[in-house]
Protein backbone atom coordinates (compact mmCIF):
# COMPACT_ATOMS: atom_id res chain seq x y z
CA UNK A 1 0.00 0.00 0.00
CA UNK A 2 2.80 2.33 0.92
CA UNK A 3 4.70 1.75 -2.32
CA UNK A 4 1.51 2.38 -4.27
CA UNK A 5 0.99 5.71 -2.56
CA UNK A 6 4.62 6.53 -3.21
CA UNK A 7 4.34 5.81 -6.88
CA UNK A 8 1.21 7.95 -7.15
CA UNK A 9 3.16 10.73 -5.48
CA UNK A 10 6.05 10.25 -7.90
CA UNK A 11 3.66 10.41 -10.86
CA UNK A 12 2.01 13.59 -9.61
CA UNK A 13 5.42 15.10 -8.96
CA UNK A 14 6.62 14.37 -12.49
CA UNK A 15 3.40 15.73 -13.90
CA UNK A 16 4.11 19.05 -12.18
CA UNK A 17 7.76 19.09 -13.20
CA UNK A 18 6.76 18.34 -16.77
CA UNK A 19 4.23 21.18 -16.81
CA UNK A 20 6.76 23.53 -15.33
CA UNK A 21 9.27 22.52 -17.97
CA UNK A 22 6.81 22.92 -20.85
CA UNK A 23 5.70 26.26 -19.44
CA UNK A 24 9.26 27.51 -19.27
CA UNK A 25 10.14 26.16 -22.71
CA UNK A 26 7.45 28.31 -24.32
CA UNK A 27 8.94 30.03 -27.36
CA UNK A 28 8.53 33.78 -27.42
CA UNK A 29 6.23 34.80 -30.25
CA UNK A 30 8.04 36.47 -33.17
CA UNK A 31 6.78 39.85 -34.39
CA UNK A 32 6.29 38.50 -37.90
CA UNK A 33 5.06 35.18 -39.28
CA UNK A 34 8.05 32.93 -39.95
CA UNK A 35 9.28 32.23 -43.46
CA UNK A 36 9.68 33.66 -46.94
CA UNK A 37 6.68 34.37 -49.18
CA UNK A 38 7.33 33.36 -52.76
CA UNK A 39 7.21 36.39 -55.09
CA UNK A 40 5.80 38.33 -52.16
CA UNK A 41 2.43 36.77 -52.90
CA UNK A 42 0.95 37.33 -49.51
CA UNK A 43 -2.27 35.40 -49.03
CA UNK A 44 -5.74 36.79 -49.71
CA UNK A 45 -8.76 35.62 -47.79
CA UNK A 46 -9.45 32.83 -50.34
CA UNK A 47 -5.85 31.92 -51.16
CA UNK A 48 -4.64 28.37 -51.01
CA UNK A 49 -1.69 28.48 -48.67
CA UNK A 50 1.20 26.08 -49.04
CA UNK A 51 3.78 25.93 -46.32
CA UNK A 52 7.01 24.16 -47.23
CA UNK A 53 9.65 23.16 -44.73
CA UNK A 54 12.95 22.93 -46.57
CA UNK A 55 16.49 22.27 -45.46
CA UNK A 56 18.85 24.06 -47.91
CA UNK A 57 21.29 21.12 -47.86
CA UNK A 58 18.69 18.33 -48.06
CA UNK A 59 18.61 16.48 -51.42
CA UNK A 60 14.90 15.69 -51.08
CA UNK A 61 14.10 19.36 -50.51
CA UNK A 62 16.12 20.16 -53.61
CA UNK A 63 14.17 17.60 -55.65
CA UNK A 64 10.88 18.92 -54.31
CA UNK A 65 11.45 22.49 -55.45
CA UNK A 66 11.21 22.35 -59.31
CA UNK A 67 7.76 20.67 -59.42
CA UNK A 68 6.47 23.00 -56.70
CA UNK A 69 7.73 26.01 -58.60
CA UNK A 70 5.96 24.73 -61.71
CA UNK A 71 2.74 24.44 -59.68
CA UNK A 72 3.13 28.01 -58.40
CA UNK A 73 3.53 29.28 -61.94
CA UNK A 74 0.53 27.29 -63.10
CA UNK A 75 -1.95 28.55 -60.49
CA UNK A 76 -0.51 32.04 -60.18
CA UNK A 77 -2.03 34.26 -57.54
CA UNK A 78 -4.50 31.61 -56.30
CA UNK A 79 -1.65 30.08 -54.33
CA UNK A 80 0.64 31.59 -51.75
CA UNK A 81 3.74 29.73 -50.73
CA UNK A 82 5.74 30.35 -47.63
CA UNK A 83 9.04 28.50 -47.21
CA UNK A 84 10.25 27.88 -43.69
CA UNK A 85 13.89 26.85 -43.37
CA UNK A 86 14.19 23.77 -41.19
CA UNK A 87 17.77 22.85 -40.35
CA UNK A 88 18.06 19.13 -39.80
CA UNK A 89 20.65 18.24 -37.15
CA UNK A 90 22.06 15.38 -39.22
CA UNK A 91 22.91 17.59 -42.20
CA UNK A 92 26.19 19.44 -41.71
CA UNK A 93 25.84 23.19 -42.22
CA UNK A 94 22.06 23.11 -42.39
CA UNK A 95 21.82 25.80 -39.73
CA UNK A 96 24.42 28.10 -41.25
CA UNK A 97 22.86 27.86 -44.73
CA UNK A 98 19.39 28.46 -43.26
CA UNK A 99 20.80 31.46 -41.48
CA UNK A 100 22.18 32.78 -44.77
CA UNK A 101 18.60 32.77 -46.11
CA UNK A 102 17.42 34.89 -43.18
CA UNK A 103 20.37 37.27 -43.64
CA UNK A 104 19.60 37.77 -47.34
CA UNK A 105 15.89 38.14 -46.74
CA UNK A 106 16.51 40.88 -44.21
CA UNK A 107 19.25 42.58 -46.22
CA UNK A 108 18.03 42.34 -49.83
CA UNK A 109 14.57 41.03 -50.73
CA UNK A 110 12.60 37.80 -50.99
CA UNK A 111 13.47 37.32 -54.67
CA UNK A 112 17.11 37.22 -53.65
CA UNK A 113 16.29 34.79 -50.84
CA UNK A 114 14.76 32.34 -53.31
CA UNK A 115 17.73 32.79 -55.68
CA UNK A 116 20.07 31.91 -52.85
CA UNK A 117 17.94 28.92 -51.88
CA UNK A 118 18.07 27.67 -55.47
CA UNK A 119 21.85 28.10 -55.54
CA UNK A 120 22.22 26.12 -52.34
CA UNK A 121 20.09 23.38 -53.87
CA UNK A 122 22.21 23.40 -56.99
CA UNK A 123 25.56 23.21 -55.18
CA UNK A 124 24.56 21.59 -51.92
CA UNK A 125 27.15 18.80 -52.19
CA UNK A 126 29.81 21.48 -51.61
CA UNK A 127 28.40 22.22 -48.19
CA UNK A 128 27.69 19.01 -46.40
CA UNK A 129 29.58 16.07 -45.02
CA UNK A 130 32.88 15.10 -46.72
CA UNK A 131 33.82 18.37 -48.51
CA UNK A 132 33.58 20.40 -45.28
CA UNK A 133 34.78 17.68 -42.91
CA UNK A 134 38.21 19.25 -42.36
CA UNK A 135 37.13 22.88 -42.50
CA UNK A 136 36.89 25.15 -39.51
CA UNK A 137 33.58 26.77 -38.77
CA UNK A 138 34.94 30.20 -39.75
CA UNK A 139 36.18 28.87 -43.11
CA UNK A 140 32.74 27.44 -43.78
CA UNK A 141 31.05 30.74 -42.91
CA UNK A 142 33.53 32.61 -45.13
CA UNK A 143 32.81 30.25 -48.01
CA UNK A 144 29.09 30.69 -47.55
CA UNK A 145 29.43 34.49 -47.45
CA UNK A 146 31.36 34.36 -50.75
CA UNK A 147 28.92 31.92 -52.29
CA UNK A 148 25.88 33.97 -51.31
CA UNK A 149 27.31 37.29 -52.45
CA UNK A 150 28.06 35.78 -55.85
CA UNK A 151 24.30 35.28 -56.13
CA UNK A 152 23.06 38.63 -54.81
CA UNK A 153 25.95 40.88 -55.83
CA UNK A 154 29.40 41.53 -54.40
CA UNK A 155 28.35 44.89 -53.01
CA UNK A 156 26.60 42.95 -50.23
CA UNK A 157 29.78 41.19 -49.13
CA UNK A 158 30.49 43.02 -45.88
CA UNK A 159 26.82 43.30 -44.96
CA UNK A 160 26.33 39.55 -45.38
CA UNK A 161 29.51 38.88 -43.44
CA UNK A 162 28.38 40.99 -40.50
CA UNK A 163 24.96 39.34 -40.78
CA UNK A 164 26.63 36.23 -39.37
CA UNK A 165 27.66 38.23 -36.28
CA UNK A 166 24.17 39.59 -35.76
CA UNK A 167 22.39 37.65 -33.02
CA UNK A 168 19.03 38.55 -34.59
CA UNK A 169 19.74 36.37 -37.62
CA UNK A 170 20.70 33.53 -35.33
CA UNK A 171 17.47 34.07 -33.42
CA UNK A 172 15.40 34.14 -36.63
CA UNK A 173 16.89 30.80 -37.71
CA UNK A 174 16.10 29.30 -34.33
CA UNK A 175 12.54 30.56 -34.56
CA UNK A 176 12.14 28.86 -37.96
CA UNK A 177 13.33 25.62 -36.42
CA UNK A 178 11.12 25.97 -33.36
CA UNK A 179 8.14 26.86 -35.49
CA UNK A 180 8.67 23.64 -37.46
CA UNK A 181 8.92 21.66 -34.23
CA UNK A 182 5.72 23.23 -32.97
CA UNK A 183 3.97 22.01 -36.15
CA UNK A 184 5.32 18.50 -35.70
CA UNK A 185 7.91 18.76 -38.49
CA UNK A 186 10.53 16.04 -38.17
CA UNK A 187 12.17 15.96 -41.61
CA UNK A 188 12.25 17.77 -44.93
CA UNK A 189 10.53 18.40 -47.22
CA UNK A 190 7.24 18.56 -45.35
CA UNK A 191 4.27 20.43 -46.78
CA UNK A 192 1.09 21.83 -45.32
CA UNK A 193 -1.81 22.95 -47.49
CA UNK A 194 -4.24 25.32 -45.81
CA UNK A 195 -2.76 24.21 -42.52
CA UNK A 196 -3.09 20.45 -43.11
CA UNK A 197 -0.05 18.27 -43.48
CA UNK A 198 0.38 16.31 -46.71
CA UNK A 199 1.26 12.62 -46.51
CA UNK A 200 4.65 11.42 -47.75
CA UNK A 201 6.80 13.48 -45.39
CA UNK A 202 10.45 13.66 -46.40
CA UNK A 203 9.91 12.98 -50.09
CA UNK A 204 9.46 15.27 -53.08
CA UNK A 205 5.94 15.61 -54.52
CA UNK A 206 5.80 15.52 -58.31
CA UNK A 207 3.88 17.94 -60.49
CA UNK A 208 0.93 15.61 -61.24
CA UNK A 209 0.45 14.80 -57.59
CA UNK A 210 0.44 18.51 -56.77
CA UNK A 211 -2.18 19.06 -59.46
CA UNK A 212 -4.34 16.28 -58.01
CA UNK A 213 -4.12 17.95 -54.59
CA UNK A 214 -4.71 21.55 -55.68
CA UNK A 215 -7.17 21.16 -58.59
CA UNK A 216 -10.12 20.10 -56.38
CA UNK A 217 -9.42 23.00 -54.00
CA UNK A 218 -9.31 25.57 -56.80
CA UNK A 219 -12.61 24.38 -58.26
CA UNK A 220 -14.47 24.74 -54.95
C1 LIG B 1 15.83 42.33 -55.26
O1 LIG B 1 17.20 42.57 -55.12
C2 LIG B 1 17.97 42.32 -56.27
C3 LIG B 1 19.43 42.43 -55.92
O2 LIG B 1 19.72 43.66 -55.32
C4 LIG B 1 17.54 43.29 -57.36
O3 LIG B 1 18.27 43.05 -58.53
C5 LIG B 1 16.05 43.09 -57.64
O4 LIG B 1 15.60 44.04 -58.56
C6 LIG B 1 15.25 43.20 -56.36
N1 LIG B 1 13.89 42.76 -56.64
C7 LIG B 1 12.82 43.33 -56.13
C8 LIG B 1 11.52 42.75 -56.51
O5 LIG B 1 12.89 44.30 -55.38
C1 LIG C 1 40.92 15.31 -43.27
O1 LIG C 1 42.26 15.50 -42.90
C2 LIG C 1 42.96 14.31 -42.53
C3 LIG C 1 44.33 14.67 -42.01
O2 LIG C 1 44.97 15.57 -42.88
C4 LIG C 1 42.99 13.39 -43.75
O3 LIG C 1 43.64 12.18 -43.42
C5 LIG C 1 41.56 13.10 -44.21
O4 LIG C 1 41.59 12.30 -45.37
C6 LIG C 1 40.81 14.38 -44.47
N1 LIG C 1 39.41 14.03 -44.72
C7 LIG C 1 38.72 14.52 -45.74
C8 LIG C 1 37.32 14.04 -45.85
O5 LIG C 1 39.17 15.32 -46.52
Automatic annotation (TrEMBL):
Gene3D superfamilies: Glutaredoxin
PANTHER family xref list: ACR183CP, OS09G0542200 PROTEIN
Organism for this UniProt entry: Ilex paraguariensis (yerba mate)
Keyword presence, Transport: no
UniProt KW keywords: Signal
InterPro entries: Thioredoxin-like_sf (IPR036249)
Signal peptide: 1-25
Keyword Ligase attributed: no
Name the UniProt record assigns to this protein: Thioredoxin-like fold domain-containing protein
Amino acid sequence: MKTRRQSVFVLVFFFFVFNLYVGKAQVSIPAKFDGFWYENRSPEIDSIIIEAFFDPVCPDSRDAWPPLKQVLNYYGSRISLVVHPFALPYHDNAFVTSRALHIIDKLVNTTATYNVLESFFKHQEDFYNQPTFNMSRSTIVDNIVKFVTEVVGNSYYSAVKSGFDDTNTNQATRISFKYGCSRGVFGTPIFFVNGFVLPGAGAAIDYNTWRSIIDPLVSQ
